[in-house]
Model the fold of this input.
Amino acid sequence: MSILIARDLTKYYGVSPNQVKALDGVSIAIEAREFVTVVGQSGSGKSTLLHMLGGLDVPTAGEVVIDGHEISGMSEEALTIFRRRNVGFVFQSFNLVPILNVYENIVLPIELDGSTVDTKFVEEILGTLGLAEKRYAMPNQLSGGQQQRVAIARALASKPSIVLADEPTGNLDTKTGQDVLGALKMTAKQFKQTIVMITHNEHIAQLADRVIHIQDGRVKSGGTQ
Amino acid sequence: MLLYSVIILAVAVFFCAATVFFCLRYLRRAFDALDGVLDRLLTREAGLPAEITKENRISKLVHKANRVLDAYVTEAAQVSTEKETIQGFISDLSHQMKTPLSGITMNAELLLGNDADDLTAEERSEFLRGIAADAAGLQWLMEGLIKMSRLEVNAIQLVPVCAPLKPTITDAIGSILAAASAKNISISVDAFDDLYVKHDKRWMQEAIVNILENAVKYSAAHSRQSHAGGKITLSVTTLPSYTKLTITDNGAGIPRGEWAKIFKRFYRGDNAADVAGAGLGLYLATVILEKQNGYIMVDSVVGEFTAFSLFLQNC
Amino acid sequence: MMGNNNGAIVRRLVRRSLQTNTRRNFFIGAAIALTAFMVASVFSIGFSYIRSVDMMRFRSEGVHSHMALQGATPAEMEALRALPYVRHVGTHHIVGTAVFPNFEQGITISAPDYPIWKYMQLPTFTRLLGHYAQEENEIMLSRAKLEALGFTDPYIGMEIPLTFTIEGTEEQQFKYFYLSAIYTEFVSTHGNAFTPIFVSLAFAERHTRIQPNEMSVNILFRNQARALHYAERLVQDLNIPAEKYALHPGLQIYQDTNLFITYTVISAVSAFLMLTGFLLIYNVMYASVSKDVRFYGLLKTLGTTPRQLRRIVNGQVLLLYIPSVIIGLGVAALASFIIVPMFMMNVPTGPVISFSPVIYAGGSLFALFTAYLGARASAKKAARVSPVEAVRYAGELRVSTKPRASAKGSPLRMAWRNVFRERKRAIVVISSLFMGLTVFTLVMTFAHSVDIEGTINRWHHYDFVLSTAQAGLLDDEFKARVASMPYVTEVHELSMDFAYTPEFLDGPQYRYMGRFIGFDTPWLLAMNPDLANWLDIEAFERGEIALFHTSPWRQQPQSPTLPMYQGKILELLLGNEHLPTTVTIAGEVPYFILIGGQSWWFTGYLDIILSNNYLRTRFEELPTKNLGINHAPNREESVLAALRDALGPLRPFSSRHDMRRAMEDETLMITVMGSGLSGILAIIGIFNFINAMSVGLLVRKREFATLESIGMTHRQLSALVRNEGIIYWTLTIGASLTLGTGIAFGLIQLLIRSGGTPFTQFIYPAVPIFSVYAVIILICTATPVLAYRSMRKASLVERLWEVE
Done:
């Protein structure tokens, strides 16, 4: 069963004649453990798509089904709780809560739900991502690449159904970007995580199992398996 | 006065009773909720969205029960996928074996056939060479598949340790040097300080060798660029958490559309039909690298160069 | 009950966010402390002031008693004591009169019983040394009396010589007494009268005849608030005829107006303070949430529900509340210990510092409630943050897709739209500035509109008034001396003595009928101008007609044996010489209190008013009691000096000078207090403004960048921001000019119309108000520009860093 399905997603902003069609009938399906990249230039609608998939925004029409649960009709509180328990995020910048240290940032979604932290699992993630010694550091003491790795760790720690990454290397230089990307891919494999990554960079898209091209709010290729 | 006492007593008793009643009811409700969750788990019924998105203990419980269910289902799916993989292996194997086997059969028939006596010594040698070649191909195939299957099912463990990278690279180059110079391809290594990297020397060497072999196989054949022959360069860059080993050749290049595909099993490329090989080298390298918590990327411009970057974990 | 057990993370986020952002903590804490301080200090000072004034009034009466009875029988005394609503019953005996310097009639010697001494006298005294006089030769005196007698360093057991006459005898006696108690009294501060000299009951029994049926009784009821009611019950229960009793005049007044006014004022002030505190806290919290939009947005993205976000904001305020409120209340307590005595310097009884824990508990609850309201509003805002917007942009907070600021329109229109983009915040800032300005306007208007001269003239008809009680004998020689003092322009007399009607001379109960009061006609007309309309002045001056007035607390103004009405013909015997005269009553004049008159120990009088011109023809020497002196303008000091020479250390009983000084002091005090209060409010308003401006600019950084990119120069942007400041002060000052002035005007008119207040017309305090307006204009115009400039500098540095 597909872990993430989008059917005819549409998102309009404003009213005609000034209407902006960010998404125009996008349908995709993603299987468990896939590493999928959505590639498109700026303005293609890829970020909007990610927001829809992650339940950060509500589509004008169409539906999003994660793990068999249809989220497009949920209330704000329900969506928030759903995100907390089922979706992990890695953003381009400012991912980390500045007043919490690395470890606390990583286990934040788990604590928001009042669940017990699987310390062994978190230790494993920390080790894999090379963050073990930095666990008590504050975000402002970390480099950009390290911050992104913490974000990845956080996205994995709660074992969500799906991890959404929005231009994770966008704010990093090439070297660090490669580093972070590697971390993303490798941990995904190791922890058997499904990942959807948004990027405009074709080069890094090769790491994915599947590439979806999006343009002008429509899927150009790679939509469904 | 007595009346007051009785009234107070009655009120107190009433409150106590009410408290007990509500406590018991709460407990009962809690157990019923747990009961419902476990039932659902048994019947493999996923929770309704409304139930898993509430801010209370029951909802959290239902959500986790769902997760347990998912993991269960996924494991089951995984097992069947693995079965499929193995079946896939077997069918691939038989498919791949067909050609060389039929070659051998054909050559053997020719050598043993009715017209065998009419064959010249040259023709006979040729047929025998053909058999040898095909046999070598089968050998190659067999070794590759066995290695791969063992790796896939974790029969062989990779043990990445902090070890110096230089010897690994040097040894890998050493094993390919002969084949390279035979085709007039030079191999050079950009100077770098020896460093320790987490890797399994034996397998890593194998991966590097696979890539070098590809570079040797596919580059010189179509190199129009350099009259002086092909050139393979190795360089090492240190990144924050990875060490990158780049192997660049100036061969035919790989078109962008193929980049994702080349790492798949049995991929041979459109322009590799006439070269011996099984299409497993890159796939094997990918698996080896992944098992060392690293990965491979490719960059290429058609007609100019192909660069493979191998990423290994820093110590 | 089945709620999720995820409180720990919320608590941690609250703690951490407080640990890391000290600047924000300071502002919120300061806001809460300020609110608590305001409430506690205003009420504390207010109540202290009221209680101090009350205490002064209370003490200067000399005795604390609700009701007085004359001639009670022992049976009645028993009955009195048995009544459940009577708390204390005490008696005193008039023993005689003591010779006292400067007191022509001497000072009464009285023997109080213990209940009167302890429960009715002592509460009006302070600094008591010694004990109740029990031995025959023991005496109790106040420090003022001792000083007048020449004893500056009194001590218990001191020998006090006294010359006195026992009541009912003519013979003067002399005796040495021993001082058993020393105390400070306040009757003497008010007007040169004294409480009686107190001796022991033993002495009274020994030297006088105590008539058991002629006891003077004073009564204290259980509950002051219901004293009037109890008094009526008592009269009914014990059947006491009207002439035998008198009530404390103050009782009536308390019942009526005070309570209502007090509660209205308290409610108004509370609402006002609550509003100010709320505005302040709300503004600071709102600004802090605006700054933290990204923080809340990220939290929401990661799965923090709106409810949890609200709990974070509320939690921050709650944790900050505890130390802040303690500080605020602490400072308020300190302030009341310092400020109240400062204000009470004029009150001779000393300040009463009202340290009621109710006020402080109320202040803390008040601050909590206000903090909660302020936090709630901002918490809602934090909860409604849109995660997409917040995580994406380092820009403005938008809850929904509202139209962004466009570059269309004139700069003024743009500025207008910007100001009201966050309507709530704009209203908060303008309201708090407006409040400060309005309070200031009110205070200044009050201070400027006080008609000091007019009020003085209403109460005082002469620059100085002397009274026999302290000036000694106002004989002809003295009068001539005063009249000849330099700068004295006129001297008028008021005479008084007892008047008897022939029937009552020998009666058992009444030893006298009442008094007559002789006026110099100008004095009488000054007090009652409309007499000129109907009184036949010539007949009055010839002694053919007279007027009368009665005391207000006599329940029956007419005694059953002597009705008074217009046209009645009275035959009177005046003074000690019993000079006969016959007058026709022409009418009644409103009651007035005789300056330096007797205290209300005795039952009320029926006074006959005659003309001094006539009396001078009958008396050899006019029994002058009061001398009214007018002098040339601005000559108070020299006349006062001359009078002092003539009088010794005693001051004239009443003077315009004193009242003028007192009123000026009071006006000054109100001005200072009011300016202080409005200063605080103004500071709060400006604080709100600066806060709103700087945060508003911060969250619009991106917008400014956009505007810059479409071609607005820095100068234009600076002008835009300045225009916003201009709009703020225009609205604020406009509202204050119209509404504020209107309120002040309305209030003054109301007070003028209700009469009895020192206001006669509305004078607009232009200078102070306009200078404050100027300050506001300056601040409102300069702040946005400065904030914009500093923001630009900061973002420039940020931009440089980004390149790195």
User: Anything to note?
Assistant: DSSP finds eight helices and ten strands in chain A. Chain A has a mean pLDDT of 87. Helices of chain A lie at 46-53, 76-86, 102-106, 108-112, 119-128, 144-157, 174-190, 202-205. The two ends of chain A are 12 Å apart (CA to CA).
